[in-house]
Amino acid sequence: MASKILFGTAGVPISTKSRDSVSGIKRVRELGLDAMELEFVRGVSMGQETAKKVAKTAMEENIVLSVHAPYYINLNSEDAKKKQASKKRIWDSMEIGNICGAQTVTFHPAFYGTGSKEECMKEVENALNELADKAREKGFGVKLAPETTGKNSVFGSLDETVELCRRVKGILPMPDFAHLHARCNGCLKKKQDFVKLIEKIPRKYLGELHMHASGINYSEKGERNHLTMEESDFNYKAMLEALKAKRVSGVIICESPNIEKDALLMKKFWEKL
After folding, report:
1. Using one digit for the tens of pLDDT, what is the confidence trace for 111-160?
2. 56 in Cβ contact with 110 (< 8 Å)
3. Is 169 exposed, middle or buried, given 0-12, 13-18 or 19+ CB atoms closer than 10 A?
4. DSSP output for 202-246
5. Domain residue spans of the chain
6. Distant-in-sequence, close-in-space partners of 273: CB < 8 Å, separation ≥ 6
7. pTM of the predicted protein model
8. Which CATH architecture has domain 5-272?
9. 92 backbone φψ class: left, alpha, beta (φ>0; ψ -120 to 50)
10. How far apart are CA 208 and CA 185, in angstroms?
């Protein structure tokens, strides 16, 4: 089966006149893109009525939606209140994301803390099992998608993310290829480098893979900040060639500072492959 990738923006496109999500979805369609990630990064402030309008607009415009949960999440916090607050932020994102008709809710799961990496894994696993079970009981269509992270000091290597998905029923890996490039201090240079990464992801996920991509600034410690593709050494062409070679289908959300320009850059290259 031929691979099909949809391309979209992390949030409302910069060129959107009105900064609300409904206008953003319409602008995504005008631009010729296919998807938009709803950014709940500072908290879930969208109400249910707005979420219903978002769902209706996305359906009318044929735009695939996903959600990014708030940034401050640490399912491995030693502070029980912070851990509970982290679970609530994810759950609130799932509730509203489900009303919006989003396919996935992505998030940065945890910091390693003072314990071992396996202890961190177990804490994250327990929290996500609780959330995934609750979502199934409610009949939610939206799925949890833990994201790979850009620093070696933070939980979220590709191996950890794939293992987490093996342990927790019904969740999906969210590879952020720019983060993975930063995490290994710029090791993703050519098509085969990306192929090796994709081969770590079980085949069952590759027909509906949600991904992030952007330019990235990094050091030996990992991610510093996102850049445009033009400013970065991130080889988006090699990434797309590898995805095509491995017959991956899904959605790529662009997190560059110029989200729509780089999303369109990737889509145009993809269409030539």
Report:
1. 999 999 999 999 999 999 999 999 999 999 999 999 999 999 899 999 99
2. no
3. exposed
4. -GGGTTSEEEEE-EEEEETTEEEEEE-TTTS---HHHHHHHHHHT
5. 5-272
6. 240, 241, 244
7. 0.97
8. Alpha-Beta Barrel (3.20)
9. alpha
10. 28
